[in-house]
Structures
1.
Amino acid sequence: MTRMTGGSMTSEAERPANLRGAGMPAVDISDVAVRFRTKKRDVTALENVSLRVDAEEFVAIVGPSGCGKSTLLKLVSGLLRPSSGDVRLLDEAVTAPRRDVGYVFQRAALLEWRSVRRNIALQAEMRRMPSAQAAARVDELIGMTGLRGFEDAYPHELSGGMQQRVSLCRALLHRPPVLLMDEPFGALDALTREHMNVELRRIRQETRTTVLLVTHSIAEAVYLADRVVVMTARPGTVAEIIDVNLPQERDYAETLVHPEFARASGRIRELLGAADAAE
Ligand SMILES: Nc1ncnc2c1ncn2[C@@H]1O[C@H](COP(=O)(O)OP(=O)(O)OP(=O)(O)O)[C@@H](O)[C@H]1O
Ligand SMILES: [Mg+2]
């Protein structure tokens, strides 16, 4: 598959400063449980979950629906507190919503009345970033994600893939050291999704951002990630963590026929089959 347009960035300048060569885990989840109590029922969403993600690592999370994947991302961002256990982000306990992460949701969640440029700039406005600095950064991201020429288009004038690029730009605007992605490509058709996978991989190689990606696609997980966390059905626990021993530079077509791709995918499929059977 060919690459999309988008200038190559100076990787050192793009790197999140506070993690450069620091050698500490970017995310450290230790023995976490999450229980939801509602009027109708008590739900244990996560139980006994531990996961360390190194700086600059790309980790994918797969598991049956309702096993607590979104809950896990919310814990890392501080949108939710665990019932027990600890979550640390960039060597600091997570006790409140954190502004130093980027978050991409399943739906692009763009404001219909704002242009591409102004949807991306929203992140800068929320952070009261000086406008000249923000405009330069928005422009840089538009180039990096191949949105050049669509700066003034409105969301309804964009394809689903382009809308997701805009939300990716918005999430990357403040150069977050950690990027959380919750099924970002779930609503796209298969081919656009492959294209976005290639794009995301390239952008990640440039930014060196640590990524936690939730996905239902085994191929997406294996193509993109350094490690894949396979979770069990509710209460969600870590069934197994699969190392993906593929080269860092991954051509899409070549990766798909790589024996390591087959091995990792096969193992994940096996584990997910077992989880389904237990449901
Ligand atoms: N705010 C909440 N109040 C009560 N229960 C909740 C809440 N949020 C999540 N849950 C429950 O916790 C469990 C895990 O939810 P979560 O959204 O994390 O699953 P998921 O793995 O992301 O599923 P999917 O793949 O369908 O997105 C589910 O049973 C869900 O109903
Ligand atoms: Mg979810």
2.
Amino acid sequence: MLLGKWRITLLFDGWKAHLAVLPTKRKYKMATIEEQIKALEEEIFNTQKNKATEHHLGKIKAKIAKLRAQQELQKIKGGGGGRRYYIKKSGDATVALVGFPSVGKSSLLNYLTGSKSEVAAYQFTTLEVIPGVMKHKGAEIQILDMPGIIKGAARGKGRGREVITAARAADMILLLGDVFNYNLKVLERELYEAGIRLDKQPPNIHITQERKGGIIVRSTVPLTRMTEFEIAEIIRAYGIVNANVTVREDIDTDTLVDFLAGNRVYIPSLVAINKFDLRYGGIEDKIEEDLGRDYLPISCATTEGLEELKDHIYETLGFIRIYLKPKGGKADLEEPLVLLDGSTVKSVCEHLHRDFVNLFRYALVWGKSAKFPGQSIGLDHELQDCDVLSIITKRR
Ligand SMILES: Nc1nc2c(ncn2[C@@H]2O[C@H](COP(=O)(O)OP(=O)(O)OP(=O)(O)O)[C@@H](O)[C@H]2O)c(=O)[nH]1
Ligand SMILES: [Mg+2]
């Protein structure tokens, strides 16, 4: 029975039953994840930041990261919510073009790849992710033209969700602004909120869970930003109670939370500022000051800077060349395979033919990655620039 904020309920205690007046259930309704995050963010905002509160703030950040992870999971499970975006990867690497509306992303894609993505003088011309392929120095690089993004993209504003999904899967992100709109910090923030870490390496932390003994933290470098106690506290907030933790860099709370959340991606980036044909007095310095990082001035209208941009994309992605040699024959030194740095023998096999991984027996390698010339190696062996490789397969 309901009486406004109260309800009368029959409670059983063993064989005895009695009536009780309790607050209505509504009162107990759990705050949504979004509400919980908001409350925690407010708490951070209202807490003075100093040495004494750093530990407490670290714990709150850990809680927020955990809630966000839950939220992402719910979205994936929920399905529904709009079209699913899946861009088929092609070529040797993928670059995502991220920028505000109308800065010239589609114009740039068209120049780099010869595609025909629609260009127009109004905002939000491009409404879905459009791929093209740029060929440069023997590499085929897939470039993704995307809808412009705005503040709030990480939470799904505009076409934010599709853009973020495509950006997360990219090997490099090209942030594009123009001489009127170059506050790319807003875009970097959106990518950050979506778990994308630009130009950073994954944290150098190692955790092995144990059955007892609590959390033992060891560090191989002096820690200046967090104490070992704080590290253990945050790890506990993630539900780990017994573990050996080795920290190999001077981490802060954000880095640790990134590591524990586990769904972060680490992607290199470049910045280009377009429409430099319309430059005005002092703009170069102003852009540099506001951006706080290097950028390439370009113009899709006059093609200024575009060939340099191609070189920079190629270098930022980091490619290696692998020369194939038939067993007992001569290496093909004319046409190397171009692969992303960090590629393994398996990547080469996949590149050559889809059956190659199944038919693989072993491989022989000469060059920088070989312990000695002609070393016999397996699929997981990581190759280096200018290696010569022979792959030996089973007979079909
Ligand atoms: N002056 C000048 N105009 C340019 C340049 N690059 C692109 N534009 C113009 O800027 C407008 C927008 O170009 P788009 O390539 O459609 O821009 P976008 O970033 O793809 O825009 P959305 O898809 O709406 O996000 C068009 O009118 C282009 O002709 C440039 O280098 N200089
Ligand atoms: Mg466009």
